[in-house]
Design goal:
The structure holds two protein chains of two kinds.
Chain A: E1 2-5, H1 13-24, E2 30-35, H2 38-50, E3 56-60, E4 63-69, H3 75-79, E5 99-102, H4 112-126, E6 135-138, H5 151-161, E7 165-169, H6 170-175, E8 186-188, H7 190-199, E9 203-205
Parallel strand pairs in A: 1-2, 5-6, 5-9, 6-7, 7-8
Antiparallel strand pairs in A: 2-4, 3-4
Helix pairs in contact in A: 4-5
Chain B: E1 3-8, H1 12-24, E2 29-33, E3 44-48, H2 53-62, E4 68-73
The chains are: A alpha/beta, B alpha+beta.
């Protein structure tokens, strides 16, 4: 059986290799495509499925082996466009998902007082918006905005009520000795922060 | 629907001063952008609880800080 090894190749190359491989086999003949990349594997599956090549996948030790059968309608292979399958996946809801990262208790650089005023205005405006973030991540001086009895903490609490997840960096809370003063959000760690950032459709840094 | 008082100041420095004065007196304030129906300019204003409005007015008046009062539906 013909085998196309796409290990180490990034999209759209594995798809182009698979398409070229299919061109070289006969209708109804089986072929294997090997991949070691999750994204390439998913893109390959969508591409091969749309081609009508009936992909069947198996995963062993992080390596995907996809077995396909060249479709009878070979014109679809010739006209296929692998690049179209390599677009960055858009989150559900038309790319409206976003994460807000609060790096400081102020907004922008310049006068501290002005920066403090602006960030208070931001959170009080944000809670009234239709398009809310999925998460708000607060670290370093940003954790000070979660202190009890502040208007930012009140705004953050309202955002939590609207299913926005507020993550407060535990290391930072510890550093500033503020644990008792934090009134909103979930004390979080860098693994959760890193995971949330990695999975974010869009990140807005304040 | 209940309404809450919005205090609009002539400039952002007055907003900051008023905020500090209120804070010193234990009056909670909320900073919000000036609603678009009031002004299209980028500005901030203060929101206080209706019950604190008189105390706020008195304290700011002592400091010669004037403000324009608007009301809006409670958010």
């Amino acid at each position: 059986m013909k085998t196309i090894d796409t290990k180490g190749r990034l999209c759209p190359e594995p798809l182009i290799m698979a398409r070229n491989g299919l061109r070289e086999v006969n209708e109804g003949e089986k072929m294997q495509v090997i991949s070691d990349n999750d994204t390439s594997y998913q893109n390959l599956m969508s591409f091969l499925e749309d081609l009508g090549a009936n992909p069947v996948a198996d995963k062993k030790d992080g390596i995907y082996t996809i077995e396909v059968t060249k479709p009878a309608e070979s014109a679809s292979v010739a006209e296929s466009n692998p690049e179209a399958y390599c677009a960055v996946p858009q989150p559900a809801g038309g790319n409206t998902d976003y994460v807000v990262v609060v790096r400081s208790c102020r907004m922008g650089e310049g006068e501290d007082d002005l920066g403090s005023l602006l960030i208070r205005g931001y959170f009080n405006a944000l809670k009234e918006m239709d398009q809310l973030p999925t998460h708000i991540i607060m670290y370093n001086g940003g954790v000070k905005l979660a202190v009890k009895d502040t208007d930012t903490a009140a705004a953050l609490a309202e955002l939590e009520d609207k299913d926005v997840s507020v993550l407060v960096c535990g290391t930072c809370v510890d550093y500033y000795s503020m644990k008792e003063q934090i009134g909103v959000g979930r004390i979080s760690n860098m693994y959760q922060i890193a995971t949330t950032l990695a999975e974010a459709g869009k990140v807005v840094y304040l | 629907m209940s309404e809450e008082p919005l205090l609009l100041f002539p400039n952002v420095h007055k907003v900051m001063r008023a905020d500090r004065i209120c804070k010193a007196l234990g009056i909670a304030t909320r900073v919000i952008p000036v609603p678009e129906e009031v002004s299209s300019e980028c500005g901030m204003c203060l929101v206080v609880a209706d019950s604190n409005l008189n105390a706020c007015r008195e304290a700011l008046s002592k400091e010669n800080i004037t403000f324009e009062l608007h009301k809006r539906g409670k958010q």
